[in-house]
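INFO batch 0412 | record 1 of 1 | parsing
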Amino acid sequence: MLFKEKVIYQIYPKSFKDTTGNGVGDLNGIIEKLPYLAELGVEMVWLNPIFPSPQKDNGYDIKDYMAIDPLFGTMADFENLIAQAKDLGIEIMLDMVLNHVSTEHPWFQKALAGDKRYQDYFILRDEPTDWVSKFGGSAWAPFGQSGKYYLHLYDKTQADLNWRNPEVREALFEVVKFWQAKGVKGFRFDVINVIGKDEVLKDNDQFDGKPEYTDRPITHTYLKEMNQATYGNDPEIITVGEMSFTTVENCILYTQPERHELTMTFNFHHLKVDYENGQKWTDAPFDFEQLKSLFHEWGTQMSEQTGWNAWFWNNHDQPRALNRFVEVEQYREAGATMLASAIHLNRGTPYIYMGEEIGMIDPTYHSIHDYVDIESHNAYQALLAQGLTPAAAFAIIQKKSRDNARIPMQWDTSANAGFTTGTPWLASDQQAETINVAAEKHGGKIFPYYQKLIALRKNYPVIAQGTYEAFVPEHPQVYGFIRRYENQSLLVVNNFYAAETLVELPAEFVAGDVLITNTELTEVTQKLTLQPYQTVALLVEH
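INFO prediction complete | emitting tokens
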């Protein structure tokens, strides 16, 4: 179970480091910064898609699964990355987008040209259902001049694959095996729980069709088949499934070791607690009670039934967590370190999204034209159509756009934050003058805190292996939990607010050792006063 000791770092390659001056990050930029990642202490790096793509959805529209997009470099560059990373004790995880392909993929082009064999690679119907695309509008588009429609749960340039066709499954398994042979030791499977569509697709007005294609029982069958045919033959490989609108019950099944499906799963429920009435494109404060309840539900149930969570606050599709959960102008450092403790000391594998370890925050853009993301532009138009003023619509885009996470990595105070010598594909932000790697390593508090958390997971079995139980679940400000493993017990308390609060500790922990805290703590008393955004972890050895 060595994977439980690892921390995984996510890189959005377009925005990490550009070595050519074309404004787009590349593989050689990642190679250049490998020593930085080794210094941080991570042992695996997940790359968002680097395959040839028209980039209609930032690389999640793939037209060739077994090549490197020239935008990022060459296959030789990738092989060099694998080798150099391995020398520093770092493995590479690739993003596998197996639910859909770009409409420019040869399979779709052959299908369009009338090839019946390849038409069965896709989901074609004479009459579309009422399903709604996750990017807005119908999930069906005309299939050329055939009179049929093809399913696209995402952008219309992303055609869903027909996993019910064994030939499709075999072709996709060959993709995984190809990258395994290159030395890849991790696979992140994009929206993998929507691959199992029902044979008969029905209208579903109330649920946008989600029950018809999400977490269907056949998905478990497909994952077992893929596991057996590919990564299951290498115990070192780590797999994580991105699960859309999933349930804890299904994620237990996806990740129980004896079922041989996946190592761990991402779910997004905890990052929807600032969605008003469940709607992303709204401006609402986060619901702490809901957040805490979700953490306890997933933590407890996965612990009791040997499932495994992948925990994260940030990724390429989310606004920065600091802007969502912290009064960031006054408490950026305390908030960043508290949020880190809440998942790094938790039961599950923590993921760090690039820039999180230096406390990066959302950019301050002034126009909708500063944004590149297709979803953000669609949402802006939809908000205007709902009657919002341009100013009100733009304010919501500023809060929720995926581009918030995609601004270039901030390395130093030079032009474009040291990301590129050219014009960045997405505008940099003024925050880089104070928030950057050079400044953080010179005297910041966040980077060294992350280093310590990563080391603790490797050195204390209770963090990597321990059970999970909720602590003070009714507390209005504190998210707390207890971990236990063999002779070690760990209590973690996190104050999620900018106000002091009192928490009463169990007697067994009062004499415990302070494993880590982000604010000076001179004495541990049974009634402990937590400062704004303070986190404290107390260890007892029995």
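INFO post-check: The mean pLDDT is 96.
INFO record closed
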